[in-house]
Prior knowledge:
Elements: E1 29-33, H1 57-67, E2 71-75, H2 85-92, E3 98-102, H3 110-119, E4 121-127, H4 138-149, E5 154-158, H5 164-173, E6 178-180, H6 195-206, E7 210-213, H7 217-220, H8 239-248, E8 253-254, H9 271-281, H10 285-300
Parallel strand pairs: 1-2, 2-3, 3-4, 4-5, 5-6, 6-7, 7-8
(1E,3Z)-4-hydroxybuta-1,3-diene-1,2,4-tricarboxylic acid binds near residues 78 and 158.
Amino acid sequence: xxxxxxxxxxxxxxxxxxxxxxxxxxxxxxxxxxxxxxxxxxxxxxxxxxxxxxxxxxxxxxxxxxxxxxxxxxxxxxxxxxxxxxxxxxxxxxxxxxxxxxxxxxxxxxxxxxxxxxxxxxxxxxxxxxxxxxxxxxxxxxxxxxxxxxxxxxxxxxxxxxxxxxxxxxxxxxxxxxxxxxxxxxxxxxxxxxxxxxxxxxxxxxxxxxxxxxxxxxxxxxxxxxxxxxxxxxxxxxxxxxxxxxxxxxxxxxxxxxxxxxxxxxxxxxxxxxxxxxxxxxxxxxxxxxxxxxxxxxxxxxxxxxxxxxxx
Length: 312
Ligand code: 0GY
């Protein structure tokens, strides 16, 4: 049995999250979360950059029910490399209430892709965050994107804001819908109207196939969670950024908890508090319905979704 001792400083996910004050709309989808192992059943990948704590599918489903979500999108985490078994196991045990985003290599066969589709996978993730993965040549990624386009899947991309200029042309060449994790990780210490965030908004304006997850305030925030004396908004410095994206592109945004919150070493969020962040960034019931229900259903359960609004 390999050594699966947690990476030093790793914070476990928050046990006993509060019950959110914000009531999620019926049918809400947690569109970004993970399962980790358990390592004894689904070993972590040899090439991983961190070893997490275990976070099982049953624990994920318990959180879903506690927070009031109806469905999950389980995104393959880098600690499992391209071994999608833990994620697929979660989909198979979800009673049809979870779909997935996989990591695949160029060597995957058509039959294996088809098996992933039948298990509920609807996307692949390309990760460009250097602390998380080794470099994969772009021609290999483009080849994968062209193959999965035929299945009606999309590409999820994870990168940091300073890398968008270098990645712009590659993203523009992708033949599918493209979902950006966590707004492309803006530096929220910079002005919202400054060049860095303007570039990201311009990227979305110019590419109608690009969506954004307005998730991970706890990862992006420099201000942190509210103090115990009850500051008004959790992660308040992230609010204007996420709100700008939600209000500018209301039909191309998704939200997820990011449970079990990999690689947080200073502060582990209370997932109930994260849900209470939502009405700060999607301020009307209609924006909330699109963010949490209509948009993720259109992307992941199109067969259950009404026809999209005109122009989408
Ligand atoms: C996230 C963020 C992170 C990690 C991963 O797959 C992963 O390991 O996505 C991170 O460390 O920023 O979205 O889960």
